[in-house]
Amino acid sequence: MDGTAIRSRIADMLRDLPEAARSALVDPVPPRNLTDWSTLGPECPGALFCPRDTAQVAAVLAAANAAGIPVVPQGGLTGLCGGARPIAGAIALSLEKMSGIEDLDEASSTMTVLAGTPLETVQRAAEAAGFYFALDLGARGSCAIGGNASTNAGGNRVIRYGMARDLILGVEAVLPDGTVVDALSKLIKNNTGYDVRQLFVGSEGTLGIITRLVLRLHPRPGCTHAAICGLADYDSALRLLTGARRKLGPTLSAFEAMWPDYWEVACAVPGVRDPLSGPHANTVLVEAQGTDETVDGPRFEAFLEEMFEQGVIEDAALSQSIGDVQAFWGVRDACAEFKTTLGPHHAYDVGLPTGAMDDFARACRTAIAEAVPGGRSVFYGHIGDGNLHLLGWQPGASSQPGQALDEAVYATVRDFGGSVSAEHGIGTTKKPYLEHSRSPEELEVMRRIKRALDPNMILNPGKVIDA
Amino acid sequence: MDGTAIRSRIADMLRDLPEAARSALVDPVPPRNLTDWSTLGPECPGALFCPRDTAQVAAVLAAANAAGIPVVPQGGLTGLCGGARPIAGAIALSLEKMSGIEDLDEASSTMTVLAGTPLETVQRAAEAAGFYFALDLGARGSCAIGGNASTNAGGNRVIRYGMARDLILGVEAVLPDGTVVDALSKLIKNNTGYDVRQLFVGSEGTLGIITRLVLRLHPRPGCTHAAICGLADYDSALRLLTGARRKLGPTLSAFEAMWPDYWEVACAVPGVRDPLSGPHANTVLVEAQGTDETVDGPRFEAFLEEMFEQGVIEDAALSQSIGDVQAFWGVRDACAEFKTTLGPHHAYDVGLPTGAMDDFARACRTAIAEAVPGGRSVFYGHIGDGNLHLLGWQPGASSQPGQALDEAVYATVRDFGGSVSAEHGIGTTKKPYLEHSRSPEELEVMRRIKRALDPNMILNPGKVIDA
Asked: Which GO terms describe its biological process (chains A, B) (predicted)?
């Protein structure tokens, strides 16, 4: 269906829409709703709805479904793969006005929130009640918890607390035909048939629109310790990871590896300080969240000493304060400034077996150098979760050779049995490479699920998978 | 379709079956394959297949699907709800000959196993490699890991490690039409489209037959401490839980509450010793798995002391050895002997908001006493996971009034917004009460999923949900 046909259907739909739902229409469409944080640029929807409650979401979806008009759900619009970018002339449905904490249940350690609530608001509400909401990522101030759910967001502390999927106990979601599915369970254990909740988490708004969530809270950590460790090789990083898992046990809350190419670029960012002297083949940020300074502080120090004695660590800096912990994270978070310091580049987020990451980095570095004249790359990531990030670029090129970079990276991912998306999702930008990571039979199962829940194919069509 | 019609179809199917698949036929059917651990009694299948590999599973399923013959998957046959009990005259397909560990990947902390492998074999293989497979339940010696997956088994340490779902990174499953779905990922992070794996976990063999699994391993705990705590009321149990979460942090590995009715019956089991003096309104077993005796031992003691000082605990026994830990678990595991000491009774496994459990126990006790002449009940469970177990019975009755007990219990569960099955699944025995815990819209989503993956309705028909 082309843009003109869709627009004419939208006009008909608006005329017949119940008044309660029509009041959710926002016209003109504000610039923020024209795209997400991908590099795809703006696209104008035919209509933007910002519903105030689930009933309005249901009314708009039912009308769009009856008219066969595509609907693109939007949250904080911080996605990197185009999942929330409008489809020309179609409906954009933003959850931005459905924001707020509805319930905090101390005994169940749960919080019930509306899908448009910013992640940072959720984190602060948890903290104010003496709890900890463990999902955290750079876009915390802008991203919405519904978007975190629909993309199954990851972040820095997955090694301890899991992905968004692991922090969501219940959802309320609206199917394309306007049916409201109430699966707002607060129960950790609920073996009563299929896990309906999991269908909506991570499906990037292609099966239903999440409107409410029951989130799992953890106790607020009593203390945090971190160290930056310089290592002689990647094998030492693996030994350090094994040692951290055994000695720090479940207090281990982050394990971030940085290759020398990343380290050099990160330490050149203004305001970032290198806490070590001299270069290393790999540098790791280890963090542990404990309950008691007097118990967990000495344990963390003893762990580092043992790793030194075993020859795993060449050099290390140990945090003496929470300020030090933040400074160490400064090196890891420096990548947020690379757009300024490096110039244009392409960012990747791939999943790999932990043991294969160094071999992958070597192969991928070569592939990028061969695919693009002078092509450069840097590697870093949450290796304990099997998640590697990398950037690739052609220095000095005014227009970056995106497709050549994509092909070089994703072919290497396929060769290593990896995943083309560990955290960021598929959206539209990674869709051409989905089959690098999923078997034809898995893709067929996905198609059957899509057809079962969205037979008219109105929800985010063209994203993730074509059914 | 009646038994005779199915039998005639089976005869035709066997004649046309490829020789490689026919060799999986086991005739006559051994008594063990006639039922599971539910109270439903034996039922004879029309044919039993025990395939040796995934290709044989696929060949049998493809033939059964073409002929419209129902297939009931079987594992260790320890399920309590009839999920693996044969359907008269139909095919039973047991994974018992597909057993073994295929791979143990240290860097990824994963193990790849065949679905028929007993849980205890998995646990021991993990331990031999210095790891810990955290799923544990009473039937460990008999139950198969594929059955644990297809029922999303829970057990004693969910509060720390999660359900089976949280310990499964990848699956290989065969669809009813014989399609082999390879989703054997070792990756914790894999945001490439829908989570296909989750469809098969917990669906009790109604969507596909799991043939292989990638399991998540944890580091082997360095030390274990436990205490039995006598409390003045349920509110103290909630305060103790909050304290344990804060002070023991992620080392907290079990929190088992036992009401006085349970405590009395458990301590009367031969060989079980009451470590406390005098009765309490609630008794809790707290366990923590640490990394280092010298650090985690004092922390556990300090936690108990603080709870005493705050008046949360009336009396407590602290483990001095791993023998003590096992003795404390003896009281909690005594329920395995209740068949002998109590006589016939009905066992329930319900999910409830943690804060509501004592009110539920009171209401349910009254409901059972009113529904059944002289009706008695005992209550215990993993309250930190929102999971309560209970037994109900009519003392002295030669035939237990199962339906009256079920109705009394499940009506109370519905009134409290709980789940009719926290761990055990639905099978056939809980199917009449499924709608007490799931909304009509959730049930409709389940039906759509069932129709999408099993359009001929051959996989475990009549179990969990009718589509």
From this structure: respiratory electron transport chain
